[in-house]
Write a structure and sequence with these properties.
By secondary structure, the protein is α+β, with helices and mostly antiparallel strands. The protein has helices spanning about 5, 15-25, 30-35, 35-45, 50-65, 70, 75-85, 90-105, 110-115, 115-125, 130-145, 155-160, 165-175, 185-195, 200-210, 220-230, 250-255, 315-325, 330, 370-380, 405, 410-415, 440-450; strands spanning about 270-280, 285-290, 300, 305, 340-350, 355-365, 425-430. The protein binds iron/sulfur cluster.
């Protein structure tokens, strides 16, 4: 919240004179007290000196914009990838991912041709993995429908998976120079404060942004709004004394910056406990399972885990997960107890967008019999059939011990184009040196860090 000093108009310009006149009275009621939302919006847009705001924002952008890799070459593909990466991710976090991505998938065609495993691997740690799936699918559609050239038409852009109003507007304005609005979270905050609107809807914000975006340098203007929201007009403690549009800002004049836009009531985040099984084969390989493509963290690899049921111990949930991952065969194999005792490794907490999960990790060292059972199941599921396996779940004598090797690293990285039988593996035995080659979420990397050296 700003003090009395911050509420004082910063400059006298034709644009802010109406505010000055109003504030000269004995009391200055907030607009929410005196007018309905439509009256307020008309009043605001009628009095706002849009040309002055545009000039101030473009000057600010020219002088104070951050040097970001995608800004050096606003090629449509680079703009698209950067915009998708920066959704729900801090720019500083996205930069190294962007550089690695461009080295690995420098063109739309390169992305379209890449196996989804490689795409997820490049994305691993950024979160919201649906974005990576959508980028991959959209790249294939761009190749099919547009000959590998990203369209500039916002309507055509919006027909691509994962491209909504914001991303289409950003690509169209930054890469193609079209005067399209682009309203992300930062722009929503700036516009809400500029117009002192407590809870503007998406259509209203889009209209306000469309009224402001200029025909000249629309991409720079949109980025200036985003930049202002990211670096000056921040959610908490906006730096109004350094803001280039402070003299036009109605929230600043009213002292309502902290309430614009009105904070949403915070919801309690559901919490789960997951028993996680780190299964160690006699030769030192670890078992990873692959999540289904559709759903949270779709297509990523992880250590087997099960949600801890009410009244259950985390170790029991981890054992359930281990048995499920290895297959029922493990329970019927004669010989020493195949799973062995569980060694607790500790717990890590990871907060997803709508859920917080505590992973309780346990190490299960497989006996020789358990390792054999694992190999049988790999073949029985059809996911790891290879040399030494007859494809029906029976180990051949000659291949004893070799089936597990067939599904390590190499097998797991094969995609639908390269996997025998036309489907990706859903389990893999992985040596610790091979682990970095697998797409693990940030949560699973935390679990991995619990393993002793
Ligand atoms: S930084 Fe302050 S003056 Fe500038 S737009 Fe935000 S609230 Fe208004």
């Amino acid at each position: 919240m700003q003090g009395a000093r911050a509420r004082r108009p910063a400059a006298s310009t034709p644009a802010d004179r109406p505010f000055h006149r109003r504030r000269a009275g004995a009391s200055f009621p907030r607009r929410s007290d005196i007018a309905g939302p439509e009256q307020v919006r008309d009043d605001v847009t009628d009095t706002l000196d849009r040309d002055a705001v545009r000039r101030a924002l473009l000057d600010f952008y020219d002088a104070r914009r951050r040097d970001l890799p995608w800004r050096r070459d606003p090629d449509p593909y680079r703009v698209w990838v950067s915009e998708v990466m920066c959704q729900q991710t801090r720019v500083e976090t996205a930069v190294p991912y962007f550089k690695r991505w461009m080295a690995r998938f420098p063109t739309v065609d390169a992305l379209a041709e890449a196996p989804i495993d490689d795409v997820l691997h490049a994305w691993a740690g950024l979160g919201y993995y649906r974005r990576a799936h959508n980028l991959h699918r959209a790249a294939r559609l761009v190749r099919e429908r547009h000959g590998g050239r990203i369209p500039g038409d916002p309507e055509a852009l919006r027909r691509l998976p994962g491209v909504g109003d914001y991303t289409a507007g950003a690509i169209a304005s930054i890469a193609f120079g079209l005067p399209e609005p682009a309203v992300d979270g930062n722009v929503r905050r700036v516009l809400s404060r500029l117009h002192d609107l407590p809870d503007p809807g998406a259509a209203e914000l889009r209209r306000l942004a469309a009224e402001l975006v200029p025909a000249e340098r629309p991409g720079d203007f949109n980025q200036a709004l985003m930049e202002l929201g990211a670096t000056v007009c921040t959610p908490r403690s906006p730096r109004c004394d350094r803001c280039p549009i402070a003299s036009y800002c109605r929230a600043r004049a009213a002292g309502t910056q902290a309430e614009r836009p009105r904070p949403k009531p915070s919801k309690a985040i559901p919490e789960d406990d997951v028993g996680t099984a780190i299964i160690l084969a006699p030769d030192g390989a670890l078992l990873l399972v692959r999540r289904p493509e559709d759903g949270l963290l779709g297509g990523l690899w992880e250590f087997p885990g099960e949600v801890v049921a009410a009244g259950e111990m985390p170790e029991d949930a981890a054992r359930r997960a281990a048995v499920r991952a290895l297959g029922k065969a493990v329970a019927s194999v004669p010989g020493p107890a195949p799973l062995g005792p569980a060694t607790p490794l500790g717990a890590v907490v990871h907060t997803f967008s709508h859920r917080r999960i505590t992973y309780h990790a346990f190490l299960f060292a497989l006996g020789e019999a358990g390792a054999g059972a694992t190999e049988v199941r790999q073949g029985a599921d059809g996911g790891g059939a290879g040399a030494g396996d007859d494809g029906a779940g029976n180990r051949s004598g000659a291949g004893g011990g070799s089936v597990a090797n067939e599904v390590r690293g190499r097998g797991a990285r094969l995609d639908d184009a390269g996997t025998p039988g036309g489907r990706a593996h859903d389990r893999a035995w992985v040596g610790t040196t091979e682990l970095p080659g697998f797409a693990l979420s940030a949560a699973q990397r935390k679990v991995l860090a619990l393993l002793p050296d």
